[in-house]
Amino acid sequence: MAGSTDSIRQKAPASKPLLSNAQIANMSVGFLGIQFAFGLQNANVSRIFQTLGAKLEEIPILWIAAPLTGLIIQPIIGHLSDKTWMPKLGRRRPYFLLGAVLASLALLVFPNVSALWMAAILLWLLDASINISMEPFRAFVGDMLPDSQRTKGFAMQSFFIGVGAVISSALPYLLTKAGVANEAAAGEIPNSVKLSFTMGAVIYLATVLYTVLTTKEYSPTQLAQFGATEESHAVNIKTPPSAFIKKGILWLAIGLVASGWLFWHNSQSSQHLEKELYVLTLGLATYGLLQMVAAAMAKARQTNGFVEVMDDLNYLPTTMKQLAVVQFFTWFALFSMWIYCTPALAQHIYNTTDPGSAAYNKMGNWVGVLFGFYNGFSALFAFLLPVIEKKYSRPVTRMVALIAGGLGLISFYFFKNDQLLIISMAGIGFAWASILAMPYSMLTQALPAQKMGVYMGIFNFFIVIPQILAATLLGFLTKQLFNGQAIFTIIVGGASMLVAALLTLRIKDQKPQH
Predict the structure, then answer these.
(1) CA distance 260 to 131
(2) Are 187 and 53 a contacting pair, CB within 8 Å?
(3) pLDDT digits (tens, 9 = 90+) for 286-327
(4) Are residues 393 and 295 in the same domain?
(5) How many CA atoms lie within 13 A of 153 on its CB side?
(6) Which of the listed residues 257, 288, 311 is the one where a domain comes to its end?
(7) What is the CA radius of gyration of the chain?
(8) Dihedral over alpha carbons 369, 48, 187, 185 (to 10 degrees)
(9) Which residues share a beta bridge with 448?
(10) Are residues 264 and 348 in the same domain?
(11) Between these two residues, 304 and 255, which has the higher pLDDT value?
(12) Does residue 132 fall inside a structural domain?
């Protein structure tokens, strides 16, 4: 057996076989269900919160559970899935299935809650469950496809994301047209929303099951032959305990000083900063403490998964660092739209801020349709991305798409006719297709294959951190700077996406590492 292992080590890694379009589609169908849940969440949660009594400026902090959940869950799930192998289900598929079951249950319960605190908890549970499924799906493409097909693989995911989001976003509107009640008594969720979430639960579970049953993962032996895993399972911690301690002290000090300054400012000034900023400042301090815990464990030679993840955070690939800055400004923009689209447009076009009014609920349904349009445009643009990439480059392709998205967001201000907003959604849809595919296509070629899952989870930090920042700052900006005019918050998001477009030019593609 030792001789067999040695022979594998001495041979040049075999190439992964090319998969057919049907096989790539089968492994991506589950993303339709994942995005169905996200589409329902993005288009309806602010509406649910306001129906249950949340004020406009309180909505961002209620949303903060979602990105915080991803920050914690995705690296853990990524690390675990890198280390998992179940003979019947494989490496990533057990997590697809677990997340689908939990998310489907959350979808069934969410629109039936009767209090705001219950809705906030359900959002946390739903987002945690979606993240359990979603992160391994990203690593799945890296596991299963050769480099030459990865852009196509992520584009296929983008297509199914677009299809799922189109249907889910427009579902309350379509159900209302079919005669399902779209209004309810004060403090109650309309039946159109309740039925949409029930249908979402069924579709989520069914599509993930389809992928689990139609796609077989490569075994550890096969992946080793492809050069995609290390023969040795020994954990190599590169960060010495002293470096962990230095980083820990630095981040702990920054977090505590920032928290102390925030407390002092709010106690001395009449212009209070939002208390939600403590999420950021105390989060930095917590990160410092975690580095110090990792130092203690490393010094005691306790090389567990926690230490390994903290070590990986200290040695990010160059391409990931370059992508991280772009991700920050991109997702800050997206979160501004998801939080404020319905209240901003209801106020800007229909001159109402009353979530119980017919006009507000009409805009709520129309925003669902608009979200369906941008996701539909995304599905159409998805298969153009490999064509544009081949002619130019991946960074240039993404830059052009982000410019289109930024201009689309800014155009909200200039369109007073709600039908014209479909034009805005074309630009946003182009950006969305790129956001879902191009960063991951660039990233998977720069990652150590045996750490694909954990690095994909860590990459989610640069999606989550700007969302936390948006959730803590956008309420302050809307209330204090824009006098409650949420349309200007959307413009800030558009400007942020244009900054991301310019920063894309810094990205240098790298050859794959094995």
Answers:
(1) 33
(2) yes
(3) 989 999 998 888 887 777 778 888 888 888 888 888 899 999
(4) no
(5) 25
(6) 311
(7) 23
(8) 20
(9) 513
(10) no
(11) 255
(12) yes
User: Which residue, chain included where needed, has tokens 């200290």?
Assistant: 314
- Cβ contact 67:283 at 8 Å: no
Looking at the structure, tell me whether residues 167 and 247 fall in a common domain.
no
172 and 51, same structural domain? yes
**In Å, what is the CA distance from 344 to each residue of 25, 54, 320, 484?**
37, 15, 34, 9
CA 168 from chain centre, in angstroms, equals 17
For the chain, count helices (H), then strands (E). Answer: 21, 0
CA distance 336 to 489: 7
- Quick check: helix, strand or coil at residue 316? coil
* Rounded Cα–Cα distance for residues 260 and 263 (Å): 5
What's the full length of the chain, in residues? Answer: 514
Please, what is the end-to-end C-alpha distance for the chain in angstroms? 24
Structure token pair of residue 37: 């849940």
- The pLDDT value recorded for residue 373 is 85
Q: Can you tell me the distance from the alpha carbon of 151 to that of 146, in angstroms, rounded to the nearest whole number? A: 10
Mean pLDDT of 81-99: 88
Residue with tokens 């040049």: 12
pLDDT tens column, 39-54: 788 777 877 887 887 7
Q: How many CB atoms lie within 10 A of CB 482?
A: 17
Gap between the Cα atoms of 73 and 168, Å rounded? 24
Q: Give the chain's largest Cα–Cα span.
A: 76
Bridge partners of residue 446, in order along the sequence:
none
Global confidence as pTM: 0.74
At which of 285, 311, 337 does a domain end?
A: 311
Phi-psi region of 301 (alpha: psi -120 to 50; beta: other; left: phi over 0): left
Q: What is the mean pLDDT of residues 459-478?
A: 79
Q: What is the DSSP letter of 185?
A: S
Structure confidence at residue 360 as a pLDDT band (50, 70, 90): confident
Instruction: Give the closest residue to 43 by CA, choosing from 165, 175, 185, 182.
Output: 165
- d(CA 189, CA 179) in angstroms, rounded, equals 16
The pLDDT assigned to 274 comes to 66
Own/partner long-range contacts of 210-215 (Cβ < 8 Å, ≥24 apart): 210/26, 210/29, 210/30, 211/26, 211/27, 211/28, 211/29, 211/30, 211/93, 211/96, 212/30, 212/89, 212/93, 212/96, 212/97, 214/26, 214/27, 214/29, 215/23, 215/26, 215/27, 215/93, 215/144
Q: How far apart are CA 248 and CA 34, in angstroms?
A: 36
* Other residues' Cβ atoms within 10 Å of the Cβ of residue 88: 6
In the three-class reduction of DSSP (H, G, I as helix; E, B as strand; rest coil), residue 448 is classed as strand
